């Protein structure tokens, strides 16, 4: 207990050190307000008078146009109803946990640890980072976003079946009753309050023709009080300084959506104006001019774009549209998203990801980017180079509220491959030459703001896919809270396809969402011609070693030969060096001797059988193959938050030498094999003898 308390105090000290004087002043102000607001806490069963329009004057005017339900594609409709029926039965998967308790959920219980936070405790006396107090807070918060209720409301809108609406009404009243203002863990985070307001606006919209909707919202004094409390909270507190990342966007988007949809209060016009200005400023602040999100975490790119679009649509429906500059920025976000995806419409896996959604109207999907592209296409019009994305319920319903498409100026005429401001480049083979070879190269900043909360220590890392299958994979995130060793591993340098020196991360890790020192990456050369696709970059993350070191990397894609070559050099001698290549979970690997060096034979399921590749590994390093190990952690892939599975990792060990060049060459073979055929040297033209042994722990012997 003492050790844990000391660790927390150390984290807070490191966190404060990353704040500016202005941020410290604002946080001191927030602390004073939080103390003063203790008298405003509402206990369960209380219902203080709410300053709002009389019941007869409360209107919800931004309903869906007539006939919109019929435009939802049959496949999307069927998926929504199947997921909604599971919810009616109480079943739902939440961040990797199969829940069976959602007929009447306990809003405060974490199913992972079994812990239940105190519902009546003043929210600002709850430490949501403490698993002892709240359990796994992501599990607790996820249900309280009420997005399972927006899905049920969508099912009612599509079918008119009363069971869906009744379940929404029962659970919404339960949440309102059990979470009065400032009581409990659901009032501890502005991002949660903001997302919940967006959900409330859409639940009201989707149930507009349900006979009980007015009694659930504008005629219910408790509902009106809750809607006001949510907006009062967001108007009183917002993320600033080193925390002004996607959180402040969610806070501003939620307040704008709430004040537009529920303009029933004396402050509504003021809240609309303030939140619109804040949202426009923060969308610009959080986004590179190219449209890439500055957190350099792919999942948050989609999240911020979605939040911005939802708020902009709500403002348009209320007759208070955002500026043309804001809409151009949102178009740039969707255009860059369309440029990044592979042939299966999968985005990069860069940085943190928690599967956060601004709104859920469709059956949950592992990849929400097709939905984002479908919506962007309806809002802005798809460009000629955009990959086609099928419409779903979200695209149809949100676009119906937005009205006619808003073509934006300055959009790229050709598919961008390089985003220089973000240090992000995609090397991609052209269509028609076989399964797409897709390679993301990372040569940009470490992350956003002084703490770079959602960054990973992944400078100069690459992701490589073949036909949309992860071959050299970014392992993902897996967890935020409760498992410090796993959190540390998945964001470490060792967990990425790059070079680690002296057993250290390139950037200094100060805690789960805190980086104390940032590696600065820079692209030094990018060639995108008919004859050459290549990228080169370096970073200074090891400048404090003795002697200082700099990692340089070049990647070249040869489309004609179907090869990818990675060349690494390290300036700075004598450091322990580890070069890792993490394989996707579908890839089988065998490490073999190849003359003086080593090679790996890779195979994975392809659309026409088994695809394969030969990976020639740099000589001068001792190569081992690992899978699903825990001491130390190595050889894992996270499908999402709360979900991990074993995968192969190739690890080369040696010593840094400024005169040495480490060359890795991957040769793809696109000819299909029988799906269950064993991989052999002949399959990928490897004329070396096989040398493989495996110990009980799953670690394969070095290729010699």
How are the elements arranged and paired?
Layout: H1 2-17, H2 21-36, H3 74-88, E1 92-94, E2 97-99, H4 131-134, H5 137-144, H6 147-159, H7 162-178, H8 190-206, H9 213-216, H10 221-236, H11 246-261, H12 268-285, H13 298-317, H14 324-340, H15 369-380, H16 393-402, E3 418-419, E4 424-428, E5 437-442, E6 462-466, E7 469-472, H17 484-490, E8 499-501, E9 508-511, E10 514-517, E11 521-528, E12 533-539, E13 550-558, E14 563-571, E15 576-582, E16 588-594, E17 597-606, E18 609-617, E19 622-627, E20 629-630, E21 633-634, E22 636-640, E23 643-646, E24 648-655, E25 662-673, E26 700-703
Antiparallel strand pairs: 1-2, 3-4, 4-5, 5-6, 6-7, 8-15, 9-10, 11-12, 12-13, 13-14, 14-25, 15-24, 16-17, 17-18, 18-25, 19-24, 19-26, 20-21, 22-23
Helix pairs in contact: 3-6, 6-7, 6-8, 8-10, 8-11, 10-11, 11-12, 11-13, 13-14, 13-16, 14-15, 15-16
Task: Describe the protein's architecture and organization.
This protein is an alpha+beta fold. Helix content is 32%, strand content 21%. It contains 17 helices and 26 strands. The strands form seven sheets. It has an eight-stranded antiparallel sheet, with no helix packed on it. A five-stranded antiparallel sheet has the order 3-4-5-6-7, with no helix packed on it. A five-stranded antiparallel sheet has the order 8-15-24-19-26, with no helix packed on it. Helix 13 (298-317) runs antiparallel to helix 14 and helix 14 crosses helix 15 (369-380). The chain is globular and about 85 Å long.
